[in-house]
Structure to design on (470 residues):
C-alpha cells in the first residue's frame, strides 16, 4: 500500500527545474516571482523572471495545476537543474506532500557508489548531494497523529546549498560544477579542506588543493611569497556601498578580462568630416520609403561598416585557439553595444549583410528598444562577428574598445560635433567625428585593419559610395 500511495503522490505533484536558458549556463538568479502558493497556473504561463550571465529571461511553466511551493525566494542564485517550484497537478484530492525524487549520482561516482534511495516523503535537497538519511515518514493524513517535531527538525537542510546541512553520509559536499573541476584537475574531494559555509567545498578550495607546495629553497634564497588570503566579507556602511558582482555584470567582467588578455588588441583612429552623411540622414527622415523606422547616423555607420566588410572580408573572422585555425565568416552578425540598467549587453543583427537600408533601420530600432526593456534573449546575443559601440551618445570623442570574445573587430563611434575644418581650401564649420577600430592582431594585420577603417571613413565622408561600392 505504501508503494501505491507514493506513486500516486509522485504523479500528483510535478516539479519544475531551473532550465539552461542560454548556451551552457550553470546558474541563474530569481529576480521576481509572478505566482504564489495557492495560485492556479496553466501550461505556458510565465511564473518567474530570472537573470542569467547574459540576460533577464521569463520562465513559463510547462503544465497546469496549483502552485504548491516556491523553493527559493527572490534574489537567490539557483543552479541549473535545481527544482524551483512544485505544482499540484491534481488539486482537490487527498492531502499529501510531493515526493522528492532520488538525487542523481555525480558523474564521477561509480554505480556501486551511487547514493542510497531517498526515503519517502518530502525532504529538502542540497543540490548535488542527494537527500539526507532519516527515519522520517510521509506526513500523516488528516485525522491521524502527526510525526514528532524533533524527527522533522533532524532532517532539515537548507535548500540553497549555502547553509549548514545535516548529511548523514561522509561524502564531501560540493556543487556539480566544483565536482567537475576537481575531476578535471585530478583532485580527490576527500582530500580537500572545505572553507565554504556548512563545510561545502568551493572552487577556490579545489584550486588550492591543485597548487603544488613550493619547492625547498636554499637558506640564502628569499622566502616564497605567502599565498593570498581571501578578504573577510565587509558589510556596506555609510561611507561605501558594496554591490554583489553577478548576472550580466559578472559576465561582462569575465568576458572583458578574457578578451583583453587573450587577443592582442590594436586600435587605430581617424577623424572624418561627416557633413554629407548628416545631410543624408535628414533627407532619409523625410523619405516615404523610410516611414515607420528610426533614421539616425548610426544607421549609415552600420551600413558603411557592412560595405567595408564586403570589400575586406578577411576582417570578419575568428581565432580558433583549440584547432589553431582562422575561421572566416561568410555572414555578418552585427553587434550593437547597448547600455541597460543591468549593464552593457551586445545583441546582434543576424545576417545583417543581406538587409536593405529600411530593413537594417527596423532591426536597429527593435534591437535597441528590446534591450532598454530588458527583454533581450540570450540567443540575440550569441554568435556576433563584428560590433559597433556608439560612445558619441555620451558626448565622448572616442575610445579604445575591447573586443567581444570570439570577434575580430569592434568600431567605436565618437560624438559628431560642429568643428572648424578645411573644406575645398577654406576653413568652414563642418560636422566632424572620430572613429576608432580595435582588432585582433593575430588574424588582422595593420594593413587590413587600416583598409577597413579607411573605407568606413570614406563612405561617411561621401555616402554616395554606399551605392558605388555596394
Amino acid at each position: 500500500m505504501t508503494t501505491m500511495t507514493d506513486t500516486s503522490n509522485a504523479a500528483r505533484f510535478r516539479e519544475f527545474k531551473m532550465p539552461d536558458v542560454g548556451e551552457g549556463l550553470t546558474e541563474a538568479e530569481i529576480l521576481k516571482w509572478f505566482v504564489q502558493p495557492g495560485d492556479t497556473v496553466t501550461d505556458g504561463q510565465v511564473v518567474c523572471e530570472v537573470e542569467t550571465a547574459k540576460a533577464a529571461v521569463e520562465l513559463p511553466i510547462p503544465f497546469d495545476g496549483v502552485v504548491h511551493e516556491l523553493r527559493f525566494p527572490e534574489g537567490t542564485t539557483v543552479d541549473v537543474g535545481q527544482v524551483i517550484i512544485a505544482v499540484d497537478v491534481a488539486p482537490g484530492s487527498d492531502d499529501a506532500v510531493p515526493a522528492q525524487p532520488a538525487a542523481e549520482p555525480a558523474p564521477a561516482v561509480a554505480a556501486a557508489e551511487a547514493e542510497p534511495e531517498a526515503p519517502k516523503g518530502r525532504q529538502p535537497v542540497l543540490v548535488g548531494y542527494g537527500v539526507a538519511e532519516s527515519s522520517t515518514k510521509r506526513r500523516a493524513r488528516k485525522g491521524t497523529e502527526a510525526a514528532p517535531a524533533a524527527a522533522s527538525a533532524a532532517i532539515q537542510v537548507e535548500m540553497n546549498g549555502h547553509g549548514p546541512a545535516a548529511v548523514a553520509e561522509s561524502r564531501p559536499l560540493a556543487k556539480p560544477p566544483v565536482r567537475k573541476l576537481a575531476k578535471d584537475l585530478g583532485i580527490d574531494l576527500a582530500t580537500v579542506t572545505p572553507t565554504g559555509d556548512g563545510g561545502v567545498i568551493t572552487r577556490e578550495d579545489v584550486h588550492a588543493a591543485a597548487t603544488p607546495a613550493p619547492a625547498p629553497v636554499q637558506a640564502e634564497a628569499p622566502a616564497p611569497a605567502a599565498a593570498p588570503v581571501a578578504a573577510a566579507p565587509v558589510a556596506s556602511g555609510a561611507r561605501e556601498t558594496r554591490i554583489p558582482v553577478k548576472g550580466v555584470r559578472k559576465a561582462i567582467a569575465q568576458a572583458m578580462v578574457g578578451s583583453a588578455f587573450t587577443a592582442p588588441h590594436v586600435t587605430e583612429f581617424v577623424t572624418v568630416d561627416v557633413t554629407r552623411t548628416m545631410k543624408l540622414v535628414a533627407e532619409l527622415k523625410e523619405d516615404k520609403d523610410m516611414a515607420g523606422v528610426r533614421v539616425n547616423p548610426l544607421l549609415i555607420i552600420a551600413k558603411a561598416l557592412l560595405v567595408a566588410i564586403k570589400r575586406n572580408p578577411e576582417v570578419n573572422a575568428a581565432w580558433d585557439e583549440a584547432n589553431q585555425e582562422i575561421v572566416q565568416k561568410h555572414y555578418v552578425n552585427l553587434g550593437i553595444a547597448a547600455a541597460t540598467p543591468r549593464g552593457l549587453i551586445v545583441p546582434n543583427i543576424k545576417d545583417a549583410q543581406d538587409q536593405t537600408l529600411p530593413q537594417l533601420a527596423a532591426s536597429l530600432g527593435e534591437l535597441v528598444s528590446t534591450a532598454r526593456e530588458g527583454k533581450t534573449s540570450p540567443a540575440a546575443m550569441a554568435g556576433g562577428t563584428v560590433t559597433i559601440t556608439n560612445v558619441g551618445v555620451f558626448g565622448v570623442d572616442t575610445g579604445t574598445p575591447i573586443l567581444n570574445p570570439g570577434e575580430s573587430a569592434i568600431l567605436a563611434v565618437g560624438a559628431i560635433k560642429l568643428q572648424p575644418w578645411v573644406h575645398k581650401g577654406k576653413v568652414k564649420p563642418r560636422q566632424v567625428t572620430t572613429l576608432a577600430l580595435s582588432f585582433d592582431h593575430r588574424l588582422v594585420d595593420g594593413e587590413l585593419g587600416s583598409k577597413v577603417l579607411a573605407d568606413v571613413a570614406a563612405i561617411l565622408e561621401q555616402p554616395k559610395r554606399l551605392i558605388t561600392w555596394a
DSSP finds eleven helices and 21 strands in the chain. Residues 357-372 form the longest helix (16 residues). Residues 1-7, 99-169, 214-230 have pLDDT under 50 and may be disordered.
